[in-house]
Amino acid sequence: ACARAICNMGLSRLIVVQPVSLEQERMAMMATPAAVKILDHMEVHQDLETALGPFNYVVGTTARLGGIRREVLSPREIAPRLVDLSQNNDVALLFGPENFGLTNRELPYCHALVTIPTGECSSLNLAQAVMVMSYELMTARNPAPRQVPRLATTDLHPGFYGLITRWSPLVNRLQPKFPSLREWWRYGSLPRRADYQERLRAGDSLWWYQSCMSHGCGGTGDSPLHDNWPSYMVDISALANRVFGLLTVHHHISGILYWDVAYAHHYDPSPARFRVDPWDSLYHFGGNGDGSLFYPGRPERIGGTRHIAIESLRLKMIRDSLVDVEYALRLKQLGEEQFLRREMARVVQGAYRWSADPQRWLELRARLGRRIAERSP
User: Fold this and answer.
1) Backbone angles phi, psi at 247, to 5 degrees
2) CA-to-CA distance for 171 and 192, rounded, in angstroms?
3) Which of 342, 321, 340 is nearest to 329 (CA)?
4) What is the total count of domains within the chain?
5) Nearest CA to 151 among 170, 169, 164?
6) Cα distance between residue 94 and residue 55, in whole Å
7) Are residues 15 and 117 in the same domain?
8) Distances from the Cα of 129 to the Cαs of 60, 118, 133, in angstroms?
């Protein structure tokens, strides 16, 4: 039965140590024709040390925990490691007899231990244990093709169901504002955050992104429609660079998309003699800094001998934004989501309704940090 199990899972080498009996005819009857070949080449040894001599890494299987048994992994946890090790090493799986398993004298031969999780009835025969381990190794060797998310910067639309798996609408369209009847007429029928729930239950994810629509792509920026959105531009409150993180938590959104981080470095349609150094201007698409979060660290500009990327202050605020998210996720793990929501509401109420007072943000970070410290084990 063990030969049949390993044959089905693509393994081929079987070694037995001190067998009580080897009834070749009976074993062949239980095996498939392909597994009979494994039995024909089966190795038999009289002691464990000799049997394991050729192997560089040995994994022992055990159902008993504690005592001298160190950390024990599951088959699924250890299988990828064994596949990787087997590229340049001989790896052995060691199983004990069905009646009592590996003894304490045999465990020192093992570099790692594995146990197969079971329910209340924790009794597997030897062939079953061999099959489980062999299956996990086969799965680790041949992982299922990874599903690549299909992202689109578009609003929710039934025509795209099943084609898009990561929806990324514009923040201004996910929670639009209506300073006048004209804007309501244009944007009043857009999908809202709650409209995406059905697709999330189907396995899709929801991101969002910010564009020049937050500041006016034509460079005017003088309409109430363009006020107080999260933005990565230079000439605005630094908290507009930071607020996206907690807004993402507030609206239960999985990620933030941004279209470029060094646009000013590699694009200028003007003739070379008229091109603008990014250190002198980052103005594009009506915004100062749109698509550019790094400055070019050229040796002739900053000294040294190598070109490096120099992060903007806006990027540092984005870093703070991500730290805000980490604080929020930690509080959720600690069961403090109600406290988190109450505290976030002090500074964030919606995509264009948030506090630009730095002191309130500093106080919020301090309160969240204290609660994490109090509740953490």
Assistant:
1) -65, -40
2) 10
3) 340
4) 2
5) 164
6) 11
7) yes
8) 12, 11, 6
CA atoms within 13 A on the CB side of 358: 5
Alpha carbons 12 and 4: distance in angstroms, whole number: 10
Q: Among 141, 162, 186, where does a domain finish?
A: 141
Chain-wide mean pLDDT for the chain? 85
Query: Who wins on pLDDT, 224 or 15?
Result: 15
Strand pairing report for 205-209 and 166-167: parallel
Give CA–CA dist 205/256, Å, rounded. 12
14 found inside a domain: yes
d(C-alpha 15, C-alpha 13), whole Å: 7
Residue 269: its pLDDT value, please?
59
Longest dimension (CA), the chain: 90
Instruction: Identify whether the C-beta of residue 250 lies closer than 8 Å to the C-beta of residue 228.
Output: no
Domain for residue 161, yes or no? no
The first and second tokens of residue 64, run together, are 């008993």
Length of the chain equals 377
Q: Residue 6 domain-assigned? A: yes
CATH, residue 19: 3.40.1280.10
Per-residue pLDDT for 221 more than 50?
Answer: no
**276 is a domain residue:** yes
Highest mean pLDDT among 19-23, 35-39, 204-208, 266-270: 204-208
Residues forming beta bridges with residue 348, ordered by sequence position: 354
Please write the tens of the pLDDT for every residue from 294-350: 999 989 888 999 999 999 999 999 999 999 999 999 999 999 999 999 999 999 998
pLDDT confidence tier of residue 226, bands split at 50, 70 and 90:
low
pLDDT at 235: 84
Per-residue pLDDT of 86-109, as tens digits, reads: 999 999 999 988 777 888 888 888
Same domain, 334 and 219: yes
Domain residues for the domain of 83 are 2-141
